[in-house]
Design a protein that fits this description.
Blueprint lengths: L3 E5 L3 H13 L3 E5 L5 H7 L4 E5 L1 E2 L2 E2 H10 L5 E6 L4 H10 L3 E4 L4 H12 L3 H5 L3
C-alpha cells in the first residue's frame, strides 16, 4: 500500500514540522500552503492520506473535503484544526473525513492514525518493497 501523504496548511511551520516527522519514518510527503492548489494536485497525484487544515487562508478545508469526496479521490482525509467545535466535527464526519484532529496535537497521535489505517506499524509499512 502506498505511503504518500499530502499536507495542506497555510502555517509554514506546521508544514515543515509534519514533513520532517513523516519523512523521518519513511513516508513520502508533499506539502501545499494554498488550498486552491489542493484539488488540481490531487487530480495529478495519488495520496493515501491528505492532512487538511480547516482554515487555509485562501480556502475552507471542509469545502475542500466535500470536493475531494465528490471527485471520489481515494485518499483518507484527516482534518486538522485549532477550532475544535461540535459544528466542525459534525461537518467533518458528515463530509467523510477519516479523522478529526485538534491542534495542537501530539505527533504520536498522527502516527497512530496512519498506523491504524495501514493496519501495520508505520515504520514497518514504510520499509516494505
Amino acid at each position: 500500500m502506498s505511503k504518500d501523504i499530502l499536507i495542506v496548511d497555510d502555517d509554514e511551520l506546521m508544514l515543515w514540522g509534519l514533513e520532517r516527522f513523516f519523512s523521518s519514518i519513511g513516508m513520502s510527503v508533499t506539502t501545499l500552503c494554498c488550498g486552491k492548489d489542493c484539488l488540481p494536485h490531487l487530480e495529478q497525484n495519488s495520496y493515501t492520506f491528505v492532512f487538511l487544515d480547516i482554515n487555509i487562508g485562501d480556502a475552507d478545508g471542509l469545502e475542500l473535503l466535500s470536493e475531494i469526496k465528490k471527485k471520489e479521490f481515494q485518499s483518507r482525509v484527516i482534518i486538522m484544526t485549532g477550532e475544535d467545535t461540535e459544528i466542525n466535527r459534525e461537518k467533518a464526519v458528515r463530509g467523510g473525513a477519516y479523522a478529526f484532529v485538534k491542534k495542537p496535537f501530539e505527533l504520536s497521535e498522527l502516527s497512530q492514525l496512519v498506523k491504524d489505517s495501514l493496519g501495520t506499524d508505520v515504520g514497518d509499512a514504510c520499509h516494505e518493497a
